[in-house]
Amino acid sequence: MEAGRRSVSGWTVANVVVVLYAMVPVLWIASLSFKDPSTFTDGSFIPRKWTLGNYAGIFTNADFVRGLVNSIGIGLISTFVAIVFGTMAAYAVARLTFPGKRLLIGVSLLIAMFPQISLVSPLFQIERALGLFNTWAGLILPYITFALPLTIYTLSAFFREIPWELEKAAKMDGATPFQAFWQVIVPLAAPGMVTTAILAFIFCWNDFLFAISLTSSNAARTAPATISFFTGSTQFEDPTGSISAAAVVITIPIVIFVLFFQRRIVAGLTSGAVKG
Amino acid sequence: MNRGKGRALTEGQRAERRLGLWLCAPAAIVMVVVTGWPIVYSVLLSLQRYDLRFPEDKAWIGLSNYATVLTSEVWWNAFWVTLLITVVSVAIELVLGMLLAFAMYRAIVGRGLIRTVVLIPYGIVTVAAAYGWKYAWTPGTGWLAGLLPEGSAPLTERGPAIAIIILAEVWKTTPFMALLLMAGLAVVPEELMRAASVDGATLWQRFTRVTLPLMKPAILVALLFRTLDAFRIFDNIYVLTNGSQGTGSVSISAYHNLIGGLNLGIGSTMSVLILVTVAIIAVVFILGFGTAAPGSER
């Protein structure tokens, strides 16, 4: 009984430490984003004078709004293509015997570990020659490429767990092959695909190196890259407020994913990376 | 499953092979086209004098770009800084990640809560978090800078700036390390731990004699992933110091030569050298430590 109570309070301490570790840096940037510009330099963790002005400022900034649109559009398209191609490949890896399977796994592993900077110089040149530089497609291509290894690993791990005999059983009970696929296999595979899509989207949403190297204007520049170009509305204005408000805005989707899909994200990260 | 080797393929097996290849084709083609040709092209670029500001001077110059880079103090400084950041941050992450993994795996109370909050650093946009750290350490503005003696500006001094870069990197990536290690913890059989405990093993003995050896494969995979990832560090440094005061990594150097300097020859040479270094690290892990390449089917 005594030991039980001690371990409960032990865990409470551990939880508090972990929560502080994870949240304090995030709360700090949020606090900064609510500070009135006159109080930026007070060094206080909690705003002394609250304002929504920084948010009003960035949402009237055409570059930032355009950056958000680019981020969402490029992220969704890249994720969708990566999931479609990745699902096909992962199904083959998990279920079929064919030559070149090990090669495919090897190539995806190489790409997963590839230093992105090594692609930046050649892609910069190639995309300028092909007219892909500073376009959505110019970012979507590398994003799909780097999201694919992740989708193939994670999905093939999920697919290995699916009891495929159910499909046969459904057919024996008189289901058509399509019914067996749609009503039996798809519901079993969907959670894994949702998880994988979230991980792929987070990857695209997060990218900075390609976004600043392969764009030159707000035509394709994504939000993280746009933020790094913030200078304040005039030369003498401090961009601190706009940058922190923008940082909070691009963090919101991540917080939503984490709150709603915590279990799935943990399962996806651990199964894909370790079991392969 | 009976896998007909060679000649004696049944119709069914042949159909399966064909389907497998067709299903993999789109993914394989995209991956090879977007990485394969650029790699070859960057090797070709690295053998040329090619500065976009002086395109008429373009010429094949053999390995002389490599000589330029490998004798440049700036490159070696960036290389050692990158290596320092990689080794120190991965070492700290391993220790913190192990503690966090235990907390997440064993927690009786609030397991869901801590598993949720640790995903925030993992998922947050690196650039967004980096600005948070930058302002936190900016004199006057930051809550952390206020804790330092009057007049210090840590981000403008080399040592403190590198320490802050490591802090930002560790904060962001420890949760990922912890999740990989937690998956490794799951392979340690509960009965074994109980048996060791009955035999009088202390907590520390159970950890070093039972848990660690069983977790070795998971630890090595986590180290491999994180080492290669840390070696390509870019976003944090770009925001925190942009490589000033000798705090740039190799990725920052290559980026500055390419986008700032528009020097494709030198930029590509650095890209190739980074690729070679990463390959060496991976080979050392896989051959030297016997890390199972993730994805190889055991």
TrEMBL record, chain A:
Q: Which SUPFAM superfamilies match?
A: MetI-like
- Report TM segments: 12-34, 72-91, 103-124, 136-159, 180-203, 243-261
Q: Name the Gene3D superfamilies on file.
A: MetI-like
Q: Provide the topology term for how it sits in the membrane.
A: Multi-pass membrane protein
Q: Organism's domain of life?
A: Bacteria
- Which protein are we looking at? Multiple sugar transport system permease protein
Q: Where in the cell is it found?
A: Cell membrane
Quote the InterPro entries the UniProt record gives: BP-dep_ABC_trans_perm, MetI-like, MetI-like_sf
Family, similarity comment: Belongs to the binding-protein-dependent transport system permease family.
Assigned keywords, A-Z: Cell membrane, Membrane, Sugar transport, Transmembrane, Transmembrane helix, Transport
Q: Which organism is it from?
A: Nonomuraea roseoviolacea subsp. carminata
Q: Can you give the residue ranges of the ABC transmembrane type-1 domain?
A: 68-261
UniProtKB/TrEMBL annotation, chain B:
Per UniProt, what is one Pfam family of this protein? Answer: BPD_transp_1
In terms of InterPro entries, this protein maps to: MetI-like, MetI-like_sf, Sugar_ABC_transporter
Q: Does the keyword Transport apply?
A: yes
Membrane-spanning segments: 21-44, 78-105, 112-133, 161-188, 272-293
Localization of this protein: Cell membrane; Membrane
Task: Give the family from UniProt.
Answer: Belongs to the binding-protein-dependent transport system permease family.
Q: What name does UniProt use for this protein?
A: Multiple sugar transport system permease protein
Q: Which organism is it from?
A: Nonomuraea roseoviolacea subsp. carminata
